[in-house]
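retry 2 of 3: previous attempt timed out while embedding NDP. Reduced batch size to 1 and resubmitted. Inputs unchanged:
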Amino acid sequence: MASSAATLPSKMKAWTYLEYGKSSDVLKLQSDVVVPQPRDDQVLLQVVAAGINPIDFKRMLGMFKNTDSPLPIIPGYDVAGVVVKVGSQVKKFKEGDQVYGDINEKAMDHPTQFGTIAQYTVVAEKLLALKPKNLSFVEAASLPLVIETAYEGLERCHFSAGKSILVLGGAGGVGTMIIQLAKQVYGASKIAATASTGKLDLLKSLGADLPIDYTNQNFEDLPEKFDVVYDAVGQCERAVKAVREGGDVVTIYGAVVPPATTFILTSNGAILEKLEPFLESGKVKPMIDPNGIFPFSETPQAFAYLETGRVTGKVVISII
Ligand code: NDP
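retry 2 succeeded.
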């Protein structure tokens, strides 16, 4: 399936935008984009699948244009693909390796112009890991940004075995990973999580002990308080009311109310390597929305679906 270095094309197809705006207005398919060349510490990947995330459309709207790379931009952070060329300093990977990762080390600090919704992309080797053998490329592409975010947040709030956690936004890309990691990797004593009525069974199947229907219950009114509250929705003001005294609150979106903390993900292939046993054993599973796999040609539809804010788990674009 993969091209070898000798047969690589010089031009490729890629979805690009030349100006900031709504995805339905600005995303265009180009068929004559120059295939990027890997620097010394990078590999060139033939992209098989690309996961998309809210940051892709926020970036497209120009929400952090002061720290963005110049236009035109090929969107896409998450990738699963095959190594087709390696830079001179690359040690971990060779041509033919099947890898995955989030290609932007700093999500909002000059993410690359050459994203993953393209036939080829370049990425620093330290941001990648070998694809777990039991996962398809589409499944692997659904993981990096959200699983690394879930992990970084749990580390930042000192999560550990025996602690309880409340996850706000348990059915989203990040939330589905927070629940699974809290249970399978950290050994949570109790997991509560919020979603709308139709998604409560999903929360249970992921490992939540207490699914909370946010359409008819206010989590902050529960008598029970939690060791950790992980806010993946942007409800920090309410989140801090649900934590026990001395507990930790972490939020990944919106206003930050003390004592909560926030962070912007730092991508790192080492996190994927650390989590590999949990993925290979099936203890932690990719969670792709039942209508969430789109062909390359339907990338605008994939964005329109993600932009509803109602997806369950992830949306992934199948490039090949
Ligand atoms: P998703 O688009 O996957 O989230 C969609 C989910 O959110 C849906 O399943 C929906 O469930 C749920 N949801 C929406 N409103 C609520 C609510 N009031 N209560 C509970 N659940 C709700 O987003 P992601 O999980 O990928 O990302 C979440 C946020 O975190 C985004 O704003 C993203 O930009 C940000 N983020 C920040 C990062 C960082 O480094 N700081 C990294 C990654 C993400 P339902 O249909 O039931 O409402």
